[in-house]
Structure formats: C-alpha cells, structure tokens
Amino acid sequence: MKAAGVVSSYYPPRARWYTRLFCVPAERARRRFHLDRLRLRGGITARELVLSLILPGFGFFALGRRRLGWIFVGCYLFAALLFTAALGYRVSSIAYGTLISIHATSIVFVEGLWLGDSPFRLRLGAALCTLVAVWGLLYAPAVGFVERHWLMPLRVGDHVLVVHRTSAAWIHRGDLVAYKIEDQNVVRHLERPIILRAGLALDRALAGPGDQVRFGAKGLFVNEQPVAAPANLPMAGGFVVPEKTWFIWPQFAIQARGVPMADIQAAIQEVAMVPANHIVGKPFKRWFGRRQSL
Q1: How many helices (H) and strands (E) does the chain have?
Q2: Which of 45-49, 58-62, 107-111 has the lowest mean pLDDT?
Q3: Is residue 238 helix, strand or coil?
Q4: What integer best gives the mean pLDDT of the chain?
Q5: Which residues contact 66 (CB under 8 A, 6 or more apart)?
Q6: Which structural domains are found in the chain, ordered by start?
Q7: Which has the higher per-residue pLDDT, 182 or 87?
Q8: pTM of the complete model
Q9: Is-contact 161 154, C-beta < 8 A?
C-alpha cells in the first residue's frame, strides 16, 4: 500500500505519447469549464459534438447507430480511395462529391437532435447550408493545399497525369516537366504580335542552366550532343541557357494566319526559356499502378 499522491519508485509513471504543451492547456480548460459534465440534447457531449463535425460518420456512433456508422465509414473510405486513384477523371469528381455528401449527412444526422420537430423547409435549408459549409470550410481548402504543396492532376489531351510538386533543383535533362506559362509571355515586338495563351504546360526539359543549345538543319544539339527534337524548332541559331532557367520547348497547337513561321518560332523560343520559379513539378512515374507517360 502507498499513500495517495506518493509516486512509487518501483512503479514509475507512464510516459505520455503527447506533449504537455497541448495536454496542460486542454486539461485546464476541461476542468475550468466542466466540459466532462456538459451534456447536450440527446445525451451527446461537447467533445462528441466536435468530433461529429470533424470526423465523417462519427455522428452515427455518438448517437448509438454503430451499424449505420460503419456503413457510412466504409463508403467514405471507398470513395476516398476512388477519388485519389482516379484523380483528374470524371469518376474522381463523383467520388469527391460523395465524400462531401457523406460527411455532411453525418453532421445533419446530429443536427436532427435540435431540428427533428422543425418544418421541412427549415431542415432542408439547414442540410443545404451544412453541405456548403463542409465543402467550403473543409474540403475545398484541403484540396487547394494539396494542389499547391504536394500534387495536382494535369490533363494533356485524353490523358491525366498526376504531377508531383517539386522545385527546379530536382529537374534533370529529359524529364517530363509541368510548368507555368504566364500572361507576360505575349510577344509584341514583332511586326504582327503573337499572343500565347497562359496556363500550365507539360513538356520535356531539353537543356538546363549553363547548357549550350544549337539549332541545325539536322536537328537539335545540346552541348554538341544530338537530342530528340520537338516540332517547329528553328533551323539555325543557338544560345547558352541562363542561370536558374530551363529550356523547355512547348508543343502548341499553332494557328498561323499570315504570320511567318520564323516569327512563330521566335515567339515560342521566348516561352521556352522557363524560369526556375515557373517550374511546377514532374509527373509521378506510376500512380496507383498506372504508368504515367506521354
């Protein structure tokens, strides 16, 4: 036997997996406001209410509908897998909508504690507001964050390639690279201005910083080594790629109405000098078993 409050040296206290930085303030708040004693309508606690808002399907478990909860959780996980695997295709968009709908339905189920006897118009309005709130506050920001910092789907013709967001430091000659073409890439100094549409493009990096590029009648040469040449390259000329710049020749669908091909090639060459900060990334080699290539 040991006195209360005395720590035995034989049974040392267990180490926590969480940090006291978060534990201590949360514990104080729980005691200060008596959150453990707080019960909302239907017997649901404040903690269960918060988890029901955050975790899809948790509301069913909180209200004792475990079987229904497992069904919704299973459907949610399947939709999440389908959304990720088919990213960029129509089926992924359908799965994305299903994720939001399941999450919103779980919250609406909890809202029924307060709106169960309300008019149908009010309950329908609350459900629609919940659906919009779940999309706008949770899913849209999460998808935007992932696309800005981790990966994004990019459609090229009939194909969708999932691009890994990375810096220019990881780009090598010959890599398939996603990059930005911005509005300033509008060539106006020619006799007939050529406007190139801004957006994202996906092409191979032909040369990197410091490489010597030469156009010839027999093709393209980088550091005097022959390179597979894309279409519409100039037949003569050359340059050295500046620092923090990549030479990536874009494959445009050209509509030339009375514009000399030399002018078009000059315009494309300006766009082909891609600054390092315009590099978006490069496609994963495989995405859920699907080989990604053009």
Answers
A1: 8, 15
A2: 45-49
A3: strand
A4: 83
A5: 60
A6: 20-149 (no CATH), 155-291 (2.10.109.10)
A7: 87
A8: 0.76
A9: yes
